[in-house]
Amino acid sequence: MVRSPFRRGVAEGLPFLVIMVPFGALFGVLGVEAGLPIAQVMGFSVLVIAGASQFTAVQLMLDSVPAVIVVLSALAVNLRMAMYSAAMVPHIGAAPLWQRSLIAYFLVDQTYALSVSAYEDRVDWGIADKVAYFAGTALPVFPAWVGSTFVGAVLGARVPDEWALDFALPLAFLALVGPLLKTRAHVAAAFVSVVGALALVWVPWNLGLILAAILALMTGAEVERRTAARPVGTEQRT
Fold first, then answer.
1. What residue ranges are annotated as transmembrane (predicted)?
2. Which of these, 37, 97, 120, 128, has the minimum number of CB atoms within 10 Å of its CB?
3. Structural domain includes residue 171
């Protein structure tokens, strides 16, 4: 049976609940432990909607880092959203402004990864189909993130340590990155980011992650340039 783009988006977004629920709950717990009232913790998840930068900000707050560094670090981590937006423009750039505004709000790692992968597979989709698919991916992801954050914030320190909710953080990004490693440039960038993050762990205020990301971007771009310069017909995929 052929599913509509929206229903396909919902179906492919649902598996992320396995990761999003403990991920959001962990942020709620950490936010409360950092001294934030529940309203501010929820404001983080509703307004920022970016787990990695939220965790970065809260961790730096716990370490009593100056506020300006907290803000700049969170913004730096979220710079990937600018790249996500640029990658979405060829697909939904001609959509009405109100639709693009909502897509910008709900554009997170999960909705981006699913959408870009689907758009590459379904070249026959029009703009309306692509917008509908994106809406489908966001439908389960966003409520799960906000709802689980609230549960974590309410429970706070009452969450048993043996639940080990922190497993969700690395799993969330592994689940996203794995299916997207399709070319040599992707693999090279991922490898450099991992090595760089480990080598630069000594850099204060977690800024080593930003440096590792920059190195990874440069590596991926260079590998992509060299691949494009090869004769037509050369195999690019891994």
1. 13-32, 131-156, 163-181, 187-217
2. 97
3. no
Q: Which residues contact 209 (CB under 8 A, 6 or more apart)?
A: 77, 197, 200
Question: What's the distance, CA 61 to chain centroid?
Answer: 21
Q: Which residues of the chain have pLDDT under 70?
A: 1-2, 156-182, 205-206, 230-238
Q: How many CB atoms lie within 10 A of CB 126?
A: 10
Report how many domains make up the chain.
2
Burial (CB count within 10 angstroms: exposed 0-12, middle 13-18, buried 19+), residue 235: exposed
Using alpha carbons, select from 34, 27, 28, 31 the residue that is nearest to residue 64.
34
Q: Kindly report, residue by residue over 184-229, the tens digit of the pLDDT.
A: 877 888 888 889 888 988 887 667 777 887 888 788 888 878 877 7
Q: Is residue 173 part of a domain?
A: no
Domain residue limits at 226: 181-233
* Straight-line distance from the first to the last Cα atom of the chain, in angstroms, rounded to the nearest whole number: 32
Return d(Cα 166, Cα 163) in angstroms, integer. 9
If asked whether residues 151 and 192 sit together in one domain, one would say no
pLDDT, residue 129, reads 95
